[in-house]
């Protein structure tokens, strides 16, 4: 089957939406992108792709955060020293960084669906092989490293959603797909300890039980990876078919279009201290509750899961807010709301650490403030990816990869500065993380789109290029049309 025939089929598939989707105002724009998110319109290929994308990423988050909740079982089995867990966390975050940087160009050149599916399958094989062979602290670090690679799928998830949803819905679609997927980390906090206990009750020796438990995240990765590859379409209008674009692209031109755009760097920095804060908390929360409140493994995992579980509603709420303020205030509204929400989340993070450091800390109050912190931090992540699709159309995958990698970089730097060694207690480190987030949110004031302005000043041109001269003539016309939908 030729490339043109595949492209024609995709136009038909995405453009000719069935009655189930069209009823109640659903539909597509001139480029075949859905103009609203309708999760229950299962006959729509946009909705089918949406569910495949978030379920696939859910499995990746589950796998990446499967180790922390069963750390008490892993310590004696792998002879772990106190310094090994932080080192493994850094290894996982570094793997996420490397994977996301590579995934951006892969999505631009190959298409997000294929990139996502193959990444899930490779991660499943790597996690299974490492879980079977690990027998030392080095093996534990390797296990967390290969599991962390699976989070590269976040870039494919956001690239896919940005390609199949119009600007009027892209903020919500990106936020819901990522938010529901992020709940995988919370699910791991609850399910992995329970699965481990179940395996023990079946008579499996302690030294083998954790390895058997790790079959669960591997099975999830394989199932979702195969499902994504079985889905026949990447993007509307044939984008992503047989090469990931409707026109031939130079690899280095695609990369340059993202790397040379200063807006991508600012968003990477700020994302490093909203999503980066989330990564830190999901790595340390269970240990924090075990040590500070003397909770058993299952209870500590349940308390820590509250942070990740907020993704189900908080990150989508950020996407809703981004699209809502854009209708009233355009891009300037998106930027202002992101700054305000992330600043509040940072302040609450400082408060979580201070409450934990109290002489007689209240478990209920600490969990409540942590949940509030999670809500604002995760909403900020959703708000960030309400802006990312408008930075560069040609290099969307690169910009998404840079921004997503910023989250991993922020977490790595924060881990090394505040959580490694014995310089700070875990409570002090959490407060310092919040303070760093407060500071790193300020550069949002530097982001400016010539046709729509920034936080501190209005537009500077009526026909400028908000895409850093990285689009061809056809794309330029489409891009300007996209911006008319911002308000």
Automatic annotation (TrEMBL):
<feature type="transmembrane region" description="Helical">
    <location>
        <begin position="254"/>
        <end position="273"/>
    </location>
</feature>
<feature type="transmembrane region" description="Helical">
    <location>
        <begin position="430"/>
        <end position="449"/>
    </location>
</feature>
<dbReference type="InterPro" id="IPR011701">
    <property type="entry name" value="MFS"/>
</dbReference>
<feature type="transmembrane region" description="Helical">
    <location>
        <begin position="293"/>
        <end position="314"/>
    </location>
</feature>
<feature type="transmembrane region" description="Helical">
    <location>
        <begin position="138"/>
        <end position="156"/>
    </location>
</feature>
<protein>
    <submittedName>
        <fullName>Putative high-affinity nitrate transporter 2.4</fullName>
    </submittedName>
</protein>
<comment type="similarity">
    <text>Belongs to the major facilitator superfamily. Nitrate/nitrite porter (TC 2.A.1.8) family.</text>
</comment>
<keyword id="KW-0472">Membrane</keyword>
<dbReference type="GO" id="GO:0012505">
    <property type="term" value="C:endomembrane system"/>
</dbReference>
<feature type="transmembrane region" description="Helical">
    <location>
        <begin position="395"/>
        <end position="418"/>
    </location>
</feature>
<keyword id="KW-0812">Transmembrane</keyword>
<feature type="transmembrane region" description="Helical">
    <location>
        <begin position="363"/>
        <end position="388"/>
    </location>
</feature>
<keyword id="KW-1133">Transmembrane helix</keyword>
<feature type="transmembrane region" description="Helical">
    <location>
        <begin position="335"/>
        <end position="357"/>
    </location>
</feature>
<dbReference type="Pfam" id="PF07690">
    <property type="entry name" value="MFS_1"/>
</dbReference>
<dbReference type="GO" id="GO:0015112">
    <property type="term" value="F:nitrate transmembrane transporter activity"/>
</dbReference>
<feature type="transmembrane region" description="Helical">
    <location>
        <begin position="83"/>
        <end position="103"/>
    </location>
</feature>
<feature type="transmembrane region" description="Helical">
    <location>
        <begin position="115"/>
        <end position="132"/>
    </location>
</feature>
<dbReference type="InterPro" id="IPR036259">
    <property type="entry name" value="MFS_trans_sf"/>
</dbReference>
<feature type="transmembrane region" description="Helical">
    <location>
        <begin position="52"/>
        <end position="71"/>
    </location>
</feature>
<dbReference type="GO" id="GO:0042128">
    <property type="term" value="P:nitrate assimilation"/>
</dbReference>
<feature type="transmembrane region" description="Helical">
    <location>
        <begin position="212"/>
        <end position="233"/>
    </location>
</feature>
<dbReference type="InterPro" id="IPR044772">
    <property type="entry name" value="NO3_transporter"/>
</dbReference>
<feature type="transmembrane region" description="Helical">
    <location>
        <begin position="168"/>
        <end position="192"/>
    </location>
</feature>
<keyword id="KW-0534">Nitrate assimilation</keyword>
């Amino acid at each position: 089957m030729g490339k043109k025939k595949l492209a024609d089929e995709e136009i038909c598939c995405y453009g000719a939406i069935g009655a189930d989707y069209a009823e109640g105002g659903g539909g597509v724009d001139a480029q075949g992108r859905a103009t609203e998110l309708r999760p229950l319109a299962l006959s729509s290929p946009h909705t089918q792709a949406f569910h495949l994308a978030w379920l696939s990423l859910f499995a990746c988050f589950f796998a990446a955060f499967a180790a922390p909740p069963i750390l008490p079982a892993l310590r004696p089995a792998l002879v772990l020293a106190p310094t090994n867990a932080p080192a493994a966390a850094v290894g996982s975050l570094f793997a996420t960084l490397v994977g996301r940087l590579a995934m951006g160009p892969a999505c631009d050149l190959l298409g997000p669906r294929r990139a996502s599916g193959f990444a899930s399958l490779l991660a499943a094989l790597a996690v299974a092989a490492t879980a079977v062979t690990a027998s030392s602290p080095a093996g534990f670090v390797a296990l967390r490293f290969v599991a962390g690679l699976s989070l590269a799928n976040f870039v494919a998830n956001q690239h896919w959603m940005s390609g199949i949803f119009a600007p009027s819905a892209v903020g919500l679609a990106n936020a819901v797909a990522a938010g529901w997927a992020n709940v995988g980390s919370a699910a791991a906090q609850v399910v992995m300890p329970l699965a481990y206990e179940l395996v023990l009750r079946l008579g499996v020796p302690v030294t083998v039980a954790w390895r058997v438990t790790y079959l669960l995240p591997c099975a999830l990765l394989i199932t979702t990876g195969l499902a994504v590859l079985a889905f026949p379409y990447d993007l509307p209008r044939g984008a992503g078919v047989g090469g990931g674009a409707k026109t031939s692209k130079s690899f280095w031109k695609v990369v340059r279009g993202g790397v040379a755009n200063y807006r991508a760097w600012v968003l990477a920095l700020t994302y490093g201290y909203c999503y980066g804060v989330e990564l830190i908390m999901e790595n340390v929360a269970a240990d924090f509750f075990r040590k500070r409140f003397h909770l058993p493994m299952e209870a500590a995992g349940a308390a820590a899961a509250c942070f990740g579980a907020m993704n189900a509603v908080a990150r989508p709420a950020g996407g809703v807010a981004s699209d809502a303020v854009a209708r009233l205030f355009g891009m300037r509204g998106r930027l202002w709301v992101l700054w305000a929400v992330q600043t509040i989340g940072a302040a609450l993070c400082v408060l979580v650490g201070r409450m934990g450091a109290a002489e007689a800390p209240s478990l209920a109050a600490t969990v409540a403030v942590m949940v509030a912190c999670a809500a604002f931090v995760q909403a900020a992540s959703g708000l960030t990816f309400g802006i990312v699709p408008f930075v560069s159309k040609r290099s969307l995958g690169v910009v998404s990869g840079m921004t997503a990698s910023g989250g991993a970089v922020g977490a790595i730097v924060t881990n090394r500065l505040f959580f490694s060694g014995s310089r700070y207690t875990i409570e002090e480190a959490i407060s310092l993380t919040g303070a760093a987030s407060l500071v790193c949110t300020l550069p949002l004031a530097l982001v400016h789109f010539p046709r729509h302005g920034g936080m501190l000043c209005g537009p500077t041109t009526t026909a400028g290029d908000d895409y850093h001269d990285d689009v061809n003539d056809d794309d330029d016309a489409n891009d300007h049309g996209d911006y008319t939908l911002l308000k």
